[in-house]
Every structure is written in C-alpha cells, then in structure tokens.
Amino acid sequence: MFRRNRLADDGQSRPIQPTSRRRLPMLKLGGRGMRGDKTPVRLMVIGLSHENLRRLKDKKPITFKGEEVDIPNVEVIIFSGETEQSMTRDLQELITPETITNFSPRVTDA
C-alpha cells in the first residue's frame, strides 16, 4: 500500500499508519478483452459505495493492490478534491518524495 506521509517538526517526511483497516463495500474487477479495432486491453472497473464517497469527501483516500484485480505491481489510490490543482497538492501527502509521477495530458495545471 502507498505510505501516507506527513511533514514532521524537523521538516522531514514521515510515514503515517492508516487509522483503520476496515473493509468498505467496493466492487473491484479486473479483466482482459479487445477494443473494437482488435487491440488487446486490460480492464479495471471500480464501483464505489456511498460510504466510499463519504470517505473521499472527508479526504480519506482508498487504496488497494493491483493484484486484487489481476494487475500486478500496481498500487491504486482513489482520492478526491475540489480542483485538479488542489488534488495535485493533496497527492503530495499520499506518496513518497521518491515517487516518479506522470500526469495525464488532460491535467492542465499540475
């Protein structure tokens, strides 16, 4: 799971342990198929319960391992925010400083 980080008094980033490991209702599905042009694709579908949505609004990210949906070596973070810019700032608290990120070209101000 991704480590959540906080900035300590000395300015160093420290991992924060999740406060709860309670499982929330969430549909996670992995699959394989083909697009209309016969290009093979891997599929990941995530269905969020209303409780998941409440947690996201409360700034509590949802994380799980890709292996749960047959996509190895992937950590999934689901979080929300008011704007792309605010989510970019929030993401810095969810990943380690060593994490290399590649933003979608759709994100205009990351």
Question: How would you briefly describe this protein structure?
Answer:
The chain is α+β, with helices and mostly antiparallel strands. It has a domain at 4-18 and 49-94.
Overview of the structural elements:
By secondary structure, the protein is α+β, with helices and mostly antiparallel strands. The protein has a domain at 4-18 and 49-94. The protein contains 2 helices and 6 strands. The strands form 3 sheets. A two-stranded antiparallel sheet has the order 1-2. A two-stranded antiparallel sheet has the order 3-4. Strands 5-6 form a two-stranded antiparallel ribbon. Strand 1 and strand 2 (13-16) form a beta hairpin. The two termini are 24 Å apart. The relative contact order is 0.19. Residues 1-9 and 12-21 have low confidence and may be disordered.
What's the structural blueprint in terms of helices and strands?
Blueprint: E1 4-7, E2 13-16, E3 26-34, E4 40-48, H1 50-57, E5 62-65, E6 75-78, H2 84-94
Antiparallel strand pairs: 1-2, 3-4, 5-6
Order of the strands making up the biggest sheet: 1-2
Radius of gyration: 16 Å
How much beta, percentage-wise? 25-35%
Largest sheet: 2 strands, antiparallel
How would you state the average pLDDT, rounded? 76
User: What order do the SSEs take from the amino end to the carboxyl end, as H and E?
Assistant: EEEEHEEH
Highlighted features:
single chain; 110 residues; alpha+beta; 2 helices; 6 strands; globular
